[in-house]
Amino acid sequence: MKYNIALIKGDGIGPEIIDGACEVLEFVGKKYGHSFNFVPYLAGGAAIDATGEPLPEETIKGCLASDSIMLGAVGGPKWDALPGNIRPEKALLGLRSALGVYSNIRPARLFKSLASASPLDKKITSKGFDIVIVRELTGGIYFGVNGRREGKDGLEAYDTECYSVKEIERIGRVAFKQAMGRRKKVTSIDKANVLESSRLWREVMHRLASEYPEVEYEDMLVDNAAMQLIKNPSQFDVIVTSNMFGDILSDEASQLTGSIGMLASSSLGASKRGLYEPIHGSAPDIAGQDKANPIATILSAAMMLRDSLGRKREAKAIEKAVEKTLRAGYRTPDIAGESKTVKVIGTKEMTQRIIENI
Ligand code: IPM
Ligand code: MG
Fold first, then answer.
1. What confidence tens digit (pLDDT) does each residue in 60-77 have?
2. Model-level pTM greater than 0.90?
3. How far apart are the first and last CA of the chain?
4. How far apart are CA 43 and CA 89, in angstroms?
5. Of 6, 184, 247, 256, which residue is most buried, by most CB within 10 angstroms?
């Protein structure tokens, strides 16, 4: 098979980590008899510099015409002073919206060999954890009505959280389906003690829960969830939550795995075409220094193989190779921890080590 993959390298460490993932994909392709046609597109700061806008029309068209999309990261201090509607982040939100990828899956699993890099106590990490965060990605407060206006005390600004039954239902179904293929537990996270949008969220989730009697279901308030993730992460199987809560909790969960450099993600909608990206940002402080951890992006490529291209075997081969490389003691600086026995290596060498283990 030949696959057309749209590549958005983006800003900061984006190009380095995407290059790593492409090398891994090419190797897998050779080994299993596929080829990839990588087509680069601009978005984020790189697009602002080249064209004046964060998400050129050509990028959207190219992505829609591809089999799938891989994205590095966007943003950086260079573009921080720009107004909200032409910031690099706008490109990411615009792309998710244009592609209709409402379901963002962020697996947070503790690799045994990385337990010492987790900030959690050994008593907690010894139980391990394997969580899938299902984040609603194209609705809620990141897409709601916003603006500035004159209020009774002068200038004020507002953002609105709004969810329709349809939006809640479709993301809820993704979570229940995920749970059916795993440990059959769904925790829906909201703020229903305060927010009306969360109360509707809860009503819809309860209706869905009754359609999946095999799945153990619970509601959890987001403040409690932030605490429970640290106290007892192994209680979670599938978490389903809104765009903003998912954004925040997935960063928290990633840190528990040792580093935000470990977490992959897929974003899917009605079709097989997905957007695959690490959950971390563009890390401008280490860009171009061969220090970035390529693992989250390489694991995102594995998710793409499985979820968009139907290549389970190839996905598994990459995931196993990552584990093997970590078990052999190779670490990028972010996951090196205090241990004197690990071998600290750069982005390029980590990529090569993983390829050798495929
Ligand atoms: C993420 C990021 C983005 C988000 C930003 C860069 C717009 O934090 O993917 O989690 O908030 O979704
Ligand atoms: Mg985020």
1. 999 999 999 999 999 999
2. yes
3. 19
4. 9
5. 6
